[in-house]
Amino acid sequence: MSNKKRILTGIRPTGALHLGHYAGALETWLEFQDSYECFFLIADYQALGDNFDDIDKITDSVKQVTIDWLSVGLDPSKSNFVIQSYVPEHAELTMLLSFVTPLGMLERNPTLKGELDQLSIEKRTVGFFNYPMSQVADILLPRADLVPVGEDQAPHIEMTREVVRKFNRIFEPIFKEPDTKIGRVPRLKGIDGNNKMSKSKGNVIELRFSEEQVNKAVMSMYTDPKRLKATDPGTVEGNPLFQYHDAFNPDKEKVDDFKKRYREGKVGDVEVKKDLAESLNNFLSPIREKREYYENNPKEVEDALMSGTSKAREIASETMKMVRAAMKIDSYTSKW
Ligand code: TRP
Predict the structure, then answer these.
(1) Which residue's C-alpha comes closest to atom 2 of ligand 1?
(2) How far is the CA of 148 from the centre of ligand 1 (A)?
(3) Which residue from 146, 224, 272, 317 has the fewest beta carbons nearer than 10 Å?
(4) pTM for this structure?
(5) What is the DSSP-derived secondary structure letter of residue 207?
């Protein structure tokens, strides 16, 4: 048994991962791999929320996400990769916790509210409404100490703490309140300048993009719309071009020099973009090589998922024993 503290975090399998996932999440996960016992969850129940009519997409994404994880260096010999629905205790704990959770906790969750607003009536399902509850169960099932996530997920972690306090007060104090850790770049913009990145908007740079795709994406990147000529002074703040430089260009001096010249109208967009494309390709090149290896060795990808999932099931079954005992729903007949 490891006496390291535990991390649980996860991703919805709804497409291949992109640079936003790297800067907001994966980079932090990599740092924690050695110092924590990590559970990285592929939240397929959660993906069903708005993709119940497209299981093929989820099936493919489970594979793509696993390959992305392996390619960036998450290591199944150190960390546990888990498929949510293969640990059915997630569903059971979600249901049990829902009895101590007032509707208001979900109704005032700002992240959920925003997402519901974007959904059609048909997709505004009970299941979707309840996904933050299932996320609470994801975190509590392995009894995680720390949940590293992007900024948008913070309300769900706060809700986890509230549910823990309620559960512990009503039944037995078996859960601890987990901490959150927000990634280094809380919210990378889309390449079109949009604050939300999504594959459907086509405004992301995927980790699996080829060199040509990266070049094309960077060249099309939205910059300062008020700057018409390279001699016009430009704005750096909030400009995706510089946000990406800050996140992925290791040469900070060069980035500072670009910023200075951009502000003074002494450098063209194309020069700054070319340099960014080069940095991104340098960053992605080793990831691409590993991806190619795993594409050709699907059995290793499957094994990575299955070994972590079976470890998660062991712990989940321990936790559910504790939960049923705390709620005293494990022993009705013994009291007759
Ligand atoms: N909601 C997260 C996302 O959209 C994924 C997720 C599912 C998660 N369960 C989790 C994150 C538990 C942290 C903890 O990316």
Answers:
(1) 11
(2) 10
(3) 317
(4) 0.94
(5) T
Domain 6-189+298-335 is of which CATH architecture?
3-Layer(aba) Sandwich (3.40)
Residue 83's DSSP bridge partners are 42
Residue-by-residue DSSP string for 19-58: HHHIIIIIHHHHHHTTTSEEEEEE-HHHHHHHHTT-HHHH
Which amino acid, residue 195? N
Quick one: DSSP state of residue 178? P
Name the residue with the closest Cα to ligand 1, atom 15.
11
Structure tokens that stand for 117 in this block: 């607003």
For the domain 209-292, what is the CATH code?
1.10.240.10
User: Tens digit of pLDDT for each residue in 38-54?
Assistant: 999 999 999 999 899 99
Q: Which pair of structure tokens corresponds to residue 99?
A: 């009895």
Protein residue with least CA distance to atom 8, ligand 1: 10
Residues with CB under 6 A from ligand 1: 8-12, 41, 43, 46, 135, 138-139, 147, 149, 153
Residue 75, both tokens: 């290591």
Ligand 1 centre and the CA of 158: distance in Å?
Answer: 13
Q: What are phi and psi of 37, to 5 degrees?
A: -85, 110
Q: Predicted confidence band at 1 (pLDDT cuts at 50, 70, 90)?
A: low
Distance 209 CA to ligand 1 centre (A): 24
